[in-house]
């Protein structure tokens, strides 16, 4: 395994009973990148992350974390925000952050000092002396995130970090992730919200049904789908259909169709020559959402979005 | 940092968190002063019982129907005989009354009096006395018979003065008596059981906190579960030590104020290995018994996912503890029996059995062996508990088993 990879896994399999929750996952996360693991709920993202971290053992396959095939050996260099957030309610915020750092080898005094600095930098300076039980859910989640970075890990693993956060805290979190990347950390996070992945990820993997369905950059993902054109004729007429590409479908006052490989110019010339004119024309780049829908399926996506809506504060 | 150093650091981090989270709460004060409530209730109960007992003692009596010289001699003899009894073993107060024309009827009537409890009545000539006694007054009847015998001896000697004058010399026994060692064994086993029962039981619910707060995922990702379990054990052991330190200091200081006479009551009670070594061994066995039982409780408690399950577990846990104590205390007076060896070998009764052995036998080497054996079992128990937790709660196979499977294929 190359040491240029912060995380690598080949053929990871995990069964719960007779169900293969993770079914031969391969992942390679280069150091210094923000890497997204995308997938609908139940796709196997969390189980994959837990196996990578050594919380649970894979039934088959191998993985390395920061070049070590025993994840526990490098746990001091890893930060982790689990999907199910957990803090001791009776602890004060700075104590909680320092405690999480101490678990990863940071001495308590440094942990407390860094906790105060991190909280102030993240806009939580007013809560440095508060008990966890007094915090809102979003604030507690941010405190836990700070606890996972307080020891300045080389690898930060975040499981659905945006889940349950309001837009203000989502923005804070995005800034924090980017700051960690700028510090030199590798960030691996799972999500089923495409917007965050689109904005943050250098590379991503889309998991569905326990298997990796796509792996590459956001641009690579978009490239799997052609550009779309939306054309609105100046003089609409049913005969126009014959001049449009085969997949053209009516949408509003116009037509939507895949941009032909040879370009749209030829089609436009034919439409103008036939007297239909151009009232509107837009070329649309496929979004990660489109790619995700194609790979995962519209039904799975709808389920994931419903779950996301439920999780919103 | 080496793996071992990291493991120790992680364990102590967990221990520190648990210790602080337990001690710096108002609830801890309740826990710390709980024995005061026990002592308070005990005192109230004791005062009540003593009052009832005193009231009974005041009414209890034995009666001699005699007059003249015989009555006076009997009173003197009674005074002399009573010096042989401890205060709690004294016969009922002797009442002397003049005999009537029908002493038997007079005696029987005394048993019917409501203002006193008559246990025995003696009448007739002292060389052939008649003694009436209640169902539970047989010992009182025997005392009256002995009293009659003594009165006759005094009368035949012609003097109430002692016929011999003994010189009493106190001789200190070198060490405890054999019976005293047995008593020390029983006391030590019981004391060890009581503090283990009180303190190790606290560990049962500690993992429930991590499970309900979802903190377990954070811990499991950062440190090995064995460290989590050991850390919790050590943290709660720190709490137990604080508790014992506090109450130990109180008991020692209160003990120094007790009358010397009370201390001499236990002069024959002592351990065979000597008091300082026994103290060390007692502490060592407290550590191992706490760790062993605590590891079992922690492992069982970690499997419980609700408070109800946790409560359901407390009964079998207590039965298990009492069984271990029963096994060990049964061997306290028979240290060389096969049962004693079995109790010493079985890891969970071993600390109790071995502390009894320290009271009964002066050999030291078996204790070193036993402590190492018990420490090994602490490790085994924690490892098994962690693996059960990993497999049952975190839903993962054990890495060790997985590696063995791989190696065999």
Largest interface: A-B, 31 and 33 residues
Helix vs. strand class of chain B: mainly alpha
Specify the CATH architecture of the largest domain in chain A.
Answer: 3-Layer(aba) Sandwich
Number of domains of chain B: 2
Portion of residues within helices of chain A: 25-40%
User: Topology as H/E string of chain B?
Assistant: HHHEHEHEEHHHHHHHHHHHH
Mean pLDDT of chain B: 83
What integer is the average pLDDT of chain A? 88
Task: Please report the total strand number of chain A as a whole number.
Answer: 13
Question: Could you characterize what this model shows?
Answer:
The complex is a heterodimer of chains A (313) and B (409). By secondary structure, chain A is an alpha/beta fold. Chain A folds into two domains: 5-222, 3-Layer(aba) Sandwich (Rossmann fold); 226-284, Alpha-Beta Plaits (2-Layer Sandwich). Helices cover 35% and strands 26% of the residues of chain A. Chain A has helices spanning 45-53, 93-103, 108-121, 137-149, 167-183, 194-200, 218-223, 265-273, 288-296, 298-311, and strands at 5-16, 19-30, 34-38, 60-65, 78-81, 155-159, 186-191, 203-208, 211-216, 228-232, 249-251, 254-258, 280-284. In chain A, strands 5-6-7-3-8-9 form a six-stranded mixed sheet, sandwiched between helices. In chain A, strands 11-12-10-13 form a four-stranded antiparallel sheet, with no helix packed on it. In chain A, strands 2-1-4 form a three-stranded antiparallel sheet, with helices on one face. In chain A, strand 8 and strand 9 (211-216) form a beta hairpin. In chain A, helix 2 runs parallel beside helix 4 and helix 9 crosses helix 10. Chain A is elongated and about 80 Å long. The model of chain A has no long low-confidence stretch (mean pLDDT 88). Chain B has 409 residues and is mainly α. Chain B folds into two domains: 60-157, 3-Layer(aba) Sandwich (D-Maltodextrin-Binding Protein, domain 2), CATH 3.40.190; 176-408, no CATH class. Chain B is built from 17 helices and four strands. Chain B has a four-stranded mixed sheet with strand order 2-1-3-4, with helices on both faces. In chain B, helix 4 (68-82) crosses helix 6 (138-157) and helix 7 (178-200) runs antiparallel to helix 13 (307-330). The longest helix of chain B has 32 residues, at 225-256. Chain B starts with a helix and ends with a helix. The relative contact order of chain B is 0.10. The chains are: A alpha/beta (313), B mainly alpha (409). The interface between A and B is medium-sized, with 31 and 33 residues.
């Amino acid at each position: 395994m190359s040491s240029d990879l912060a995380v690598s896994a080949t053929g990871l399999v995990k069964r719960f009973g007779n169900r293969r929750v993770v079914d031969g996952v391969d992942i390679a996360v280069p150091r210094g990148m923000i890497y997204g693991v995308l997938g609908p709920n139940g796709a196997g993202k969390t189980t994959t992350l837990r196996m990578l971290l050594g919380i649970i053992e894979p039934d088959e396959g191998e993985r390395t974390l920061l070049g070590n095939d025993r994840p526990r050996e490098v746990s001091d260099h890893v930060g982790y925000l689990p999907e199910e957030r957990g803090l001791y309610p009776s602890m004060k915020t700075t104590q909680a952050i320092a405690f999480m750092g101490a678990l990863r080898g940071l001495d308590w005094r440094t942990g407390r000092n860094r906790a105060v600095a991190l909280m102030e930098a993240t806009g939580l300076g007013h809560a440095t002396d508060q008990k966890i039980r007094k915090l809102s859910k979003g604030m507690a989640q941010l405190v836990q995130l700070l606890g996972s970075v307080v020891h300045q890990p080389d690898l930060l693993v975040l499981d659905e970090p945006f889940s349950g956060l309001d837009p203000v805290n989502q923005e804070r979190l995005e800034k924090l992730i980017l700051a960690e990347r700028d510090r030199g950390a590798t960030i691996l996070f799972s999500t089923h919200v495409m917007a965050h992945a689109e904005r943050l990820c250098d590379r991503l993997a889309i998991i569905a049904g326990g298997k990796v369905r796509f792996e590459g950059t956001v641009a690579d993902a978009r490239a799997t789908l052609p550009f779309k054109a939306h054309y609105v004729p100046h003089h609409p007429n049913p005969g126009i259909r014959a001049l449009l590409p085969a997949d053209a479908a009516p949408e509003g006052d116009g037509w939507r169709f895949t941009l032909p490989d040879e370009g749209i110019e030829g089609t436009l010339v034919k439409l103008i020559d036939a007297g239909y004119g151009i009232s509107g024309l837009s070329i649309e780049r496929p979004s990660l959402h489109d790619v995700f829908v194609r790979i995962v399926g519209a039904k799975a996506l709808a389920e994931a979005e419903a779950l996301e809506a439920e999780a919103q504060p | 940092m080496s793996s071992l150093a990291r493991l120790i650091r992680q364990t102590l981090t967990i221990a520190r968190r648990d210790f602080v989270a337990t001690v710096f709460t108002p609830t801890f004060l309740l826990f710390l002063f709980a024995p005061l409530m026990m002592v308070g209730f005990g005192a109230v109960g004791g005062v009540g019982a003593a009052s009832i007992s005193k009231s009974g003692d005041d009414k209890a009596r034995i009666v001699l129907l005699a007059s003249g010289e015989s009555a006076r001699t009997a009173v003197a003899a009674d005074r002399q005989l009573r010096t042989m009894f401890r205060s709690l073993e004294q016969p009922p107060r002797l009442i002397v009354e003049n005999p009537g024309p029908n002493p038997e009827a007079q005696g029987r009537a005394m048993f019917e009096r409501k203002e006193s409890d008559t246990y025995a009545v003696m009448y007739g000539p002292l060389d052939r006395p008649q003694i009436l006694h209640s169902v539970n007054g047989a010992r009182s009847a025997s005392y009256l018979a002995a009293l009659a015998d003594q009165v006759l001896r005094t009368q035949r000697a012609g003097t109430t003065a002692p016929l011999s004058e003994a010189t009493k010399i106190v001789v200190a026994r070198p060490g405890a008596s054999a019976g005293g060692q047995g008593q020390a064994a029983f006391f030590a086993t019981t004391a060890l059981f009581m503090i283990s029962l009180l303190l190790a039981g606290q560990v049962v619910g500690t993992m429930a906190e991590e499970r309900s707060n979802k903190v377990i995922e954070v811990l499991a990702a950062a440190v090995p579960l064995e460290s989590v379990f050991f850390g919790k054990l050590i943290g709660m052991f720190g709490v137990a030590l604080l508790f014992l330190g506090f109450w130990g200091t109180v008991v020692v200081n209160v003990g120094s104020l007790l009358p010397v006479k009370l201390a001499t009551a236990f002069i024959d009670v002592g351990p065979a290995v000597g008091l300082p070594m026994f103290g060390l061994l007692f502490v060592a066995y407290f550590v191992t018994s706490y760790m062993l039982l605590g590891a079992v409780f922690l492992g069982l408690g970690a499997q419980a996912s609700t408070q109800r399950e946790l409560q359901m577990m407390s009964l079998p846990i207590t039965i298990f503890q009492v069984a271990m104590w029963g096994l060990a205390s049964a061997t306290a007076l028979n240290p060389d029996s096969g049962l004693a060896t079995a109790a010493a070998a079985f890891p969970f009764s071993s600390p109790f059995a071995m502390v009894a052995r320290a009271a009964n036998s002066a050999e030291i080497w078996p204790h070193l062996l036993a402590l190492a054996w018990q420490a090994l079992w602490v490790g085994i128990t924690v490892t098994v508990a962690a693996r059960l937790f990993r497999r049952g709660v975190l839903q993962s196979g054990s890495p060790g088993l997985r590696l063995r499977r791989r190696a065999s294929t």
